[in-house]
Structure formats: C-alpha cells, structure tokens
Amino acid sequence: MKILKNKFFLLSTLVIILLYSCQNNTENKSSNTNQTxxxxxxxxxxxxxxxxxxxxxxxxxxxxxxxxxxxxRNVFLKxxxxxxxxxxxxxxxxxxxxxxxxxxxxKTEGYELWIxxxxxxxxxxxxxxxxxxxxxxxxxxxxxxxxxxxxGK
Length: 153
What we know:
Helix content: 55-70%
Signal peptide: 1-26
Number of helices: 3
Keywords: Signal
Strand content: 15-25%
Protein name: Lipoprotein
Order of helices and strands: HEEEEHEH
Strand order of the largest sheet: 4-3-2-1-5
Low-confidence stretches: 24-41
Largest sheet: 5 strands, antiparallel
Structural class: alpha+beta
Radius of gyration: 27 Å
Distance between the termini: 94 Å
Mean pLDDT: 76
C-alpha cells in the first residue's frame, strides 16, 4: 500500500510539473505575440509621430525664418527616455556665418522646438530610432523650399 501511495505521489507530481510547464510555454508564446504586435504598433506610431514632427519643424522654421535661407543636415528620429519622441538635427541660416546649430522638435501635447544648448542635451541623451532609410534632412529641405516657393537645387 505504501508503494502505491509513493507511485501515486510521484505520478501526480509529474503531472503537475507537466501541466505547469505547458502553461508557462503558452504564456511565453502569448507574450511573444504581444511583443511583436507592440513592436508593429510602435513602428506605425513612430512613423505617424515622425510625420507630425517633420511637418511641425518645417512649419515653425518657415514661420520664424521667412527671410532666411535655411538648410538642414544630420536629422534623425529619436526617443528620449521611454515616452518623448523628437526630431534632432542641425540647421544653417545661410545669411549667418557658417555655423550649424542643433535643433530638436519634441512631441508634447503639441510640439516644442528647441534650438541650441537644450536641443543638444535632449538629442545627446536620446536613443536614435532607425525605422527607415529615408534621409530626413533632405525631406525637411525639400518641404521647406516647397513652402517658400523655391525650386530645389
């Protein structure tokens, strides 16, 4: 009788381990599926935010630098900490001496455009998001020239 109890205990323990193992495997698969979906949603969200930030940057430069010829370079979509998306880059006002200045356009409730030191700090501390191979500087230059009614070089 004691041997039968030991076998029953051993068998029930194995069944419990097996069931627990299957449950963990199912949770891991579900978790991986959720992560993949979240990554796809994040890429879509970052593309939408990138478009918003690009448009906001161009509109702001157009509005505030109408009498200047502005050129952009080294423009990237970045993520500051875990929540704040921003476009970082440099711009040159051609009427000024050759001095490239950092800028950052942050996604807030609307947006904020930072120029100079604060932009440099945000951009240095942010992680670059490589969601596409587009040259964002070229896109900004083209959009700004289009608003200004200037044909591209």
